[in-house]
Amino acid sequence: MRVFITDTTLREGIQSASFELSYQERKDIFFFLALIGLEEIEAGVPAYSEEEREYIKDLAESQYAEKLIVWNRANQKDIELAIQCKVKKVEIAFPISDIMIEEKLRRTREYVLGLAKNLVPYAKTHGLYVSVGLEDVSRADKNFVFKFVDHIKEMDADRIRLSDTVGVLNPIKVVELVRELSPIIDVEVHFHNDFGMATANSVVAALSGAKYINTSLLGLGERCGIAPTEEVVLYLEVVQKIHTGIDIMGLRQMIDYVINKGLELEPNKPIVGRNAFTSKSSIHIDGLSKSKRTYLPFDPEILGVQATLSYGTYSKRK
Questions:
Q1: Alpha-carbon distance 216 to 231, whole Å?
Q2: Averaged over 299-308, what is the pLDDT?
Q3: Which regions of the chain does DSSP assign to beta strands (E)?
Q4: What number of other Cβ atoms are within 10 A of residue 81's Cβ?
Q5: What is the phi/psi pair of residue 227, to 5°?
């Protein structure tokens, strides 16, 4: 089994209210992510600005061009701008829930189907690999979801992206959705973390047949962000023994680079918080003195860090 991680720090991540990057910093991160084995990197939005397009063109002309994918709204102008950037892969986001269709677009389901009928073939005739995003799929009518997926499959879309736009999916629903859709078309998932479910939802999606998992470093993104790259990768690699192709030590170095941009981390943040591998109670300290396996999920040395001890309530020094 192989799962492909699509890191979207350079698009979703910089939508975080706490995080900004220069274009040079974005290029640096892109090349480092490519170097440590990320399968795919969502690097930006061509329609945003001319400067954004110049940055994307530079990436599209690099040795890692095949790893580049860019995000687009569901309109022809966005796709035209992506084509101008000479990219090979595009994400086209279609509102799929009635909330988004009626209250944001002020349109109908039939309009969205017609939009897909025009845009997917247009992108394909220009030689693009097309991931069709289903925005707000978690609140969409299931019958319409399947109708839409059948519709874009007929037009040779390469995969779909299930976007839990406001983070309301749970693992049971994810398993059901992915298992039903993955026999029809390759599935990519993009899960927001508004209720702290993004990592769990991403992992069960992978175990249920999703081939592509969207993540961002430290889980950066809109509001509460999306599934953190480091959490998803470490869980798949260490617990599930699923190979992601990503160099773990290199990933830790990339995380440190991002942290050094001025981000504040909770001390108990999984994988990277300062307390992530610190034990305090006497029972845990005693167990760890005999074997690291007793009270650690994995040896943190694979990340280049050491487990530590703390003393206080419920602990005592021998």
A1: 10
A2: 94
A3: 4-7, 40-42, 68-73, 89-95, 129-135, 159-164, 186-191, 212-215, 278-279, 308-309
A4: 20
A5: -60, 130
Contact 167, 195 (CB under 8 A): yes
Q: Which residues of 134-147 are buried (b: 16+ CB within 10 A; e: fewer)?
A: bbbbbbbeeebbee
Calpha distance 50→56 (Å, rounded): 10
3-state helix vs strand vs coil in the chain, percent to 5: 45, 15, 40
What confidence tens digit (pLDDT) does each residue in 143-185 have?
Answer: 999 999 999 999 999 999 999 999 999 999 999 999 999 999 9
First to last CA, the chain: 47
Question: Of how many residues is the chain composed?
Answer: 318
The whole-number pLDDT of residue 1 equals: 76
Q: What is the value of pTM for the model shown?
A: 0.96
* DSSP class per residue in 16-79: STT----HHHHHHHHHHHHHTT-SEEE---TTS-HHHHHHHHHHHTSTTGGGEEEEEESSHHHH
Contact predicate 192/218, CB 8 Å: no
Cα separation of 134 and 161, whole Å? 6
pLDDT at 317 over 80: no
